[in-house]
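Late entry, written up from scratch paper. The run itself happened at the end of the previous shift, but nothing got recorded in the book at the time, so transcribing now.
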Amino acid sequence: MKRGLVFLTIALLAVSMVFAGGSAEADDGQKTITVWAWDDNFNVAVMKEAAEVYASVKPDSGVTVNVESFSKEDVFVKLQTGLAGGGSGLPDIVLLEDYVAGKYLTTFPGSFVDLTDLFDYSQFLPFKVDAVSQDGRIYAVPFDTGAAALYYRLDLVEAAGYTEEDMQNLTWDEFIQIGKDVMDATGIPMIVEIANNKTTLVRAIMQSCGEWYFDHDGNINIVGNEALRASFEILLEMRDAGILFEAESTEGRAAALNNGRVASVVNAPWFISSLRPAEDQTGLWRAARIPRVADIPESINASNVGGSSWYVLANSDVKDEAIDFLQTVWQGNTDFYDTIMLNQGAMGSYIPGYATAVYDAEDPFFGGQKINALFAEILPEVIPVNYGGYVAEANDAITTALANLFAGRTDIDGALEQADAQLHNQLGR
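Output as recorded:
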């Protein structure tokens, strides 16, 4: 059965669910925009801040923004169910991960408002606009980004004879050599990934080369993907050199860094919150651009991992008001972007927002480095790719293939072929 049909069938089976949300108009004519999102401390908090800004800018609009919080899984299930059931019980605005949005746009065409001509998308990061586009049309307002950075312990690097300057614009070959020297000097592995899921590093390396699990036409791109192959080679070389620390879980990864058992990690801006609990390491950390793949000319020292965007539902009774809300707050209001960067650490996609004083702030945890300025420098360079909408399924296939590779059950070519076969089978292509 085709993957799209499976996706639709699951949604239809769930149509008996009791829905929350949906727009409403009070007897006094007051209109309510309902927003669905997850994570009270991040996405939900950011959208509540947006609601306050809108109320202050347009106090007489007669519009209230109601942000409803669910788990990410519940947002996706409820959205699938509502769309499959003809649009009942849906919100007016919904948050979708860029990695899965293509699945919804393809499976439920016409369900989201075409915003192409309603926003100045030249003011948003190109790779984020590309992520919310389909067939030349744009369906969302880009929100947060995952500028990939190499976070590293400067004191451990210095113990091996290297400086902060030496860590800039590396190739992966150079990084691995530094890792070997750090290991020799300190006995501490250079980099951490999760034992049963190394796809954060895989995805960062792929997009730094302008490649993805899917090509620009949406076709599966596993076998013959030189950037993906390079990521396998890099991981294997780091493992064989003894510089790759394999944590047992997400929590274990953070603990290894906090406890000084590993020297670096590649991740997004939000990962800083996992480093900061180690207050005794204040001033020891630095951030740099991620390494590039030397043998791939297109590879650059810039990439992205993760991110989400805001979509307006086509059947909303208040879609004009929802669009006005997004236009008013999310386009042109750099003060709003400053606030969410300071309060939630939300690195937005609105390019003019990067020119404010927030990005000149020195971070004591990173030895006074202007960490936000680094992210702002990286993001405009990130190469757009077609996420394809089925990143979770591709990650599963890659995780299985890497497990077989690391266990010695196959070589790199065999691992890629296994991942390719698994993904084709799962998606029915």
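Residues 1-21 have pLDDT under 50 and may be disordered.
(Scratch paper discarded after transcription.)
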